[in-house]
Structure formats: structure tokens, C-alpha cells
Design brief:
Blueprint: E1 2-5, H1 19-31, H2 33-42, E2 50-54, H3 60-69, E3 74-79, H4 82-95, E4 99-104, E5 118-124, H5 133-142, E6 144-156, E7 161-162, H6 168-182, H7 193-199, E8 207-211, E9 214-216, H8 217-230, H9 232-237, H10 243-259, E10 264-266, E11 269-276
Parallel strand pairs: 1-4, 2-3, 2-5, 3-4, 5-6
Antiparallel strand pairs: 6-11, 7-10, 8-11, 9-10
The structure holds S-adenosylmethionine.
Length: 277
């Protein structure tokens, strides 16, 4: 059920809202399922608890939460993208009986979450879309019950690497980092999570977790192409690439895969940090 909308018309989301980007988000979510599951299990999320997924996207983290809290629990997803949010509800309600709701809202404008307070409030890959991530973290801490947890999972993109030299990887980084920085976003926010917890007034996190995936080049290539495509419009406007350069990049990725010169790719590291309130 959609509860309400506080969405502002100016959507600055750098990755775009195409069906290809939705597909990429779902694939990315599958990749990190184990990392989110292990943090949720470590924090003791269980039957009957309530939780919120902040920037819920395709709802895959909501699904993991729902599996742990069961039908007597409650899972709220919050996102400014109503299309993916409504799609996620359809998927979730057929997948299992936990109580799921979706709130269509712009987190920059959202102050109170009347559905809370929650046993756990988590934001995965959401803080890095915020120009002032500590502001969101501060709000998240207010949405948690005393004794509940604030959890953040975000990328350290400098942790990504091909298993063998591959010059086009630098072009990928120039384009992706260029778009992020022009939007005032930090692609290495993951390593700064303790600083952000302190800035938000939460103090140093109780603990952290670092997860990585070393995948086949074929799989890494799909993501290198998909992220590049998702940021292509702003990258063209910023003159970080051209349509011809973008095509040459895609062709080179295919060539590298065919020759087998790079076997594997290390994904950006997924860093988790949490604090008991
Ligand atoms: C990279 S996706 C991550 C989705 C999901 N947390 C996951 O890990 O699969 C980031 C999500 O944050 C949402 N988002 C970004 N800025 C937002 C804002 N200001 N208000 C609400 N949602 C926002 C986007 O719409 C997108 O669904």
C-alpha cells in the first residue's frame, strides 16, 4: 500500500530511472544478499520485529528483512521512486506474508516516520546519493526505538579492481567518479561511515563489516557497462565522454572478454556500520 507522497519534482538521482537501471539494481541486490543477511542476523533481527529500509529501490533488502521478522513483523520501504516501490510491493506480497508497506517520499524532505519507531533502520547504497549524508543518518537515528539499530551499508569504490591491467577501467572510473563528484557525491563514502556516524552525533559505530565479491570478468563487464550507461546522460553533459568514446569503451570491454586477458573483477567493497541507539 502506498501511504503518502512527499516527493519533490526535482529528481537529481544520477543513475537514472530506466528499466535497464532497475534490472541493474536487482542484479546488484542479488550480489550483496549475503552481506546484508549476515549483518541482519548478527544484529538479531527476528520474528515480530519492525524495520525500515531507507532508499528501498527494488525491495530486495525488504525481502531479507521480511524473511527474518515473519508475518508478525513489519517492514517499511521508503523511496522517492514510486514505480520501483510499487513493483517491489507486488513481488514482496507474493513472496512471503510479512507485513510490508511502501512510503513514496523524498528523504530530503521527510522528517517524521509515523510508522515507527523501528527495531532496525537500514540504508543500503542510499547515503552515497546524499549531498549531506550525515543529515539522513541523524534522521534515521530518530526513527529507531531505544535499543534498536541504525545500519548503513555503502560502497568503497576504490576497492574495485580488475584481475589484470585493463586501461578502459580507468576510463570507467573517470566517467563514474566525474559524474559523482559533479553531483557533490562521494564514491568512497563507505570508508567514511565512522566519520559520518560521529558527524551525525551517533558516535563511533559499535562495529563494522567489510564484504567483497571477486566475480568473473563476464559478470563484471555487465556491471561496468550498465553503470556507464546509467550515468551516460550526465557524463555527456559534463563532457566526460562522447557517444563515440562510449561505443569504443563498450567494444573494448567485449574484446577483453573475448581474448580472456582479464579473468576476474573485484567489486567495490561493501562496508557496513551500525550503532545501537
Ligand atoms: C542504488 S539504489 C539502492 C537500492 C536498495 N537500497 C538496494 O540496495 O538494493 C538507491 C535508492 O535510493 C533512492 N533514493 C535516492 N535519493 C533519494 C531521496 N532523496 N529520497 C528517496 N529515495 C532516494 C533511489 O530512488 C534508489 O532507489
Amino acid at each position: 500500500m502506498e501511504i503518502t507522497s512527499t516527493l519533490s519534482p526535482d529528481d537529481e538521482y544520477i543513475l537514472g530511472r530506466t528499466s535497464a537501471e532497475y534490472q541493474r539494481l536487482r542484479q546488484q541486490a542479488m550480489l550483496w544478499e549475503f552481506a546484508t543477511q549476515r549483518v541482519l542476523s548478527r544484529l538479531g533481527l527476528r520474528e515480530g520485529m519492525s524495520c525500515a529500509d531507507i532508499g528501498s529501490g527494488p525491495g530486495e533488502t525488504m525481502r531479507l528483512m521480511g524473511e527474518l521478522v515473519g508475518a508478525s513483523g513489519y517492514v517499511l520501504g521508503v523511496d522517492m521512486d514510486n514505480i520501483i516501490g510499487q513493483e517491489s510491493l507486488i513481488m514482496l506480497k507474493t513472496a512471503n506474508p510479512a507485513r510490508y508497506e511502501f512510503l513514496h517520499a523524498n528523504l530530503l524532505e521527510l522528517d517524521e516516520l509515523t510508522q515507527g519507531p523501528f527495531d532496525l533502520v537500514l540504508a543500503r547504497l542510499t547515503l552515497y546519493h546524499m549531498k549531506n549524508p550525515a543529515d539522513l543518518l541523524r534522521k534515521m537515528s530518530r526513527w529507531v526505538k531505544p535499543g534498536g539499530y541504525v545500519v548503513v551499508q555503502d560502497y568503497y569504490n576504490d576497492g574495485a579492481a580488475p584481475s589484470a591491467p585493463f586501461p578502459e577501467f580507468q576510463h570507467y572510473k573517470d566517467v563514474f567518479y566525474g559524474v559523482c563528484r559533479a553531483a557533490g557525491l562521494d564514491p568512497n563514502i563507505g570508508v567514511r561511515l565512522p566519520d559520518l556516524f560521529i558527524e551525525a552525533g551517533l558516535g563511533f559505530p559499535d562495529d563494522t563489516d567489510v564484504a567483497g565479491r571477486l566475480v568473473s570478468f563476464a559478470q563484471a563487464k555487465l556491471m561496468l557497462k550498465a553503470v556507464y550507461t546509467s550515468v551516460l546522460q550526465p557524463a555527456l553533459q559534463l563532457k566526460l565522454t562522447t557517444p563515440e568514446r562510449a561505443q569504443a569503451y563498450a567494444d573494448e570491454l567485449d574484446r577483453v572478454e573475448q581474448t580472456g586477458q582479464v579473468t576476474a573483477g573485484l567489486w567495490p567493497l561493501m562496508i557496513s556500520a551500525w550503532k545501537k541507539m
